Amino acid sequence: MTKNNPKTIQEKIATLDELVAWFDSDNFTLETALDKFKDAETLAEEIEKDLSSLKNEIEVVKQKFDQA
Amino acid sequence: MENTINPRLTVSDFVALTNQTLEYAYPSVEVEGEVAGFKVNQGKYVFFDLKDSGASIGCFMTVWQLRQPIEDGMKIIVTATPKLTQWGKFSLTVRALRPSGEGSLKKSFELLKAKLDKEGLFAPERKRLLPALPQRIAVISSTQAAGYADFVKILNDRWGGLHVDVAQVQVQGTDAPDQIMRALKYFNAQEVLPEVIVIIRGGGSADDLSAFNDELLVRDIATSRVPTLVGVGHETDESLADLAADVRAATPSNAAQIIVPDRHEIIRSVRYKAQSVLPRTLQAIDGVRGQVQGNLGRILEAVEYQHQQSDTQLRRLRDVLAQLDPSVVLRRGYALIRGEQKVGSHIQIETHRAIIGAKVESYDEK
Lengths: 68, 366
Known about the structure:
The complex is a heterodimer of chains A (68) and B (366). In chain A, 57% of the residues lie in helices and 6% in strands. With 68 residues, chain A is mainly α. With 366 residues, chain B is an alpha/beta fold. Chain B has helices spanning 11-25, 102-118, 146-158, 176-188, 206-209, 215-222, 240-244, 252-259, 263-324, 326-331; strands at 29-41, 45-51, 56-62, 75-84, 90-99, 136-141, 163-168, 196-201, 228-232, 247-249, 336-338, 346-350, 355-359. In chain B, helix 3 (146-158) runs parallel beside helix 8 (252-259). The longest helix of chain B is centred in the C-terminal third of the chain and has 62 residues, at 263-324. Classes of the chains: A mainly alpha (68), B alpha/beta (366). The A-B interface holds A 9-10, 13, 16-17, 19-20, 23-24, 28, 30, 33-34, 36-37, 40-41, 43-44, 47-48, 51-61, 63, 65-66, 68 and B 133, 143, 152, 155-156, 159-170, 175, 178-180, 182-183, 186, 263, 266-267, 270-271, 273-274, 276-278, 280-281, 284-285, 288. Strand 1 (57-60) of chain A pairs parallel with strand 7 (163-168) of chain B, so a sheet runs across the interface.
């Protein structure tokens, strides 16, 4: 992830899903598992932070609709 | 002698003057009454009488202005301009009408529902899916309405990062359908289209909600380029706008629930996912530990077996050695003779208990 191209929440969730899937895959090795687990935890914290801080931008349009 | 007090007019001038006077006095009137003699001529012109127990008046309008179906016996309210026709007939030129009273509202609703249903406007196959996670949505509502406030509260609570454009319109009354239609047209004409248009209004009486049964509005919702989500009234209310929308929400709050996921649920799910890998890892560690312990056990068993084997062999050899020990043989009564075995030689005889010197007196081969 770079500053210029930050991952969206959906992309982060997809990455987390991939990480979790790795644990059930044939590629699983105990040597790598700890690093992957740490990555998953960090990503989960990041997603939680992102989700909690997101605000909606609500704008009432200037256009008037009371006259044709 | 001519009468100079009363103006002398032509018939046409008199009709025109009367209409001018009427227009000045009653530019627009609302009249409530029962429909009688309803008919449509040439598919364009609508005629009916509006009556009550004491009077009756003819009404005229075009079919394009007739946005809620009516039939004889229905009670309606017309918004109209009184007019004297060139044939001297007094009538109301109707600009808009709406059913009045629960019975008429229901009747009008059923008539239009049947008509639009027959045209396939409510068919399930016309329905489009809403985007799973929209980035940009449009909302058509009255920003002062409680339903709008509920929608915004739930939306902000559930999700963030959305851009929401809101069109402020009336959501009840005769002007409401046109305003909502203009807002729909506005959003459908944007260069960057919203991903979904949400039309919401809180609960109200059948009359309050009747704006959402306007035929032209219902048709515009059904033909919107952008998928629509309509949440009008309470759960038990049904409007034709609901039926024409791609997705129907039971209430404005429900509309917010439909349009965005709940961030709290996602956070819970993400936490669960991250933690769910731990048991898998621990299971793998247990597996390896078990394997190592199993291997160690087998090694120990092998060593123990080898040790036992060696011990048994050693004991056997010791037994053999013990049997070969000369002192053991001597103990059994045998004797050991040392020296040259020939007659006359001095020999040494060793028994278990003594070493004896002796002289060989005879020597015979066996």
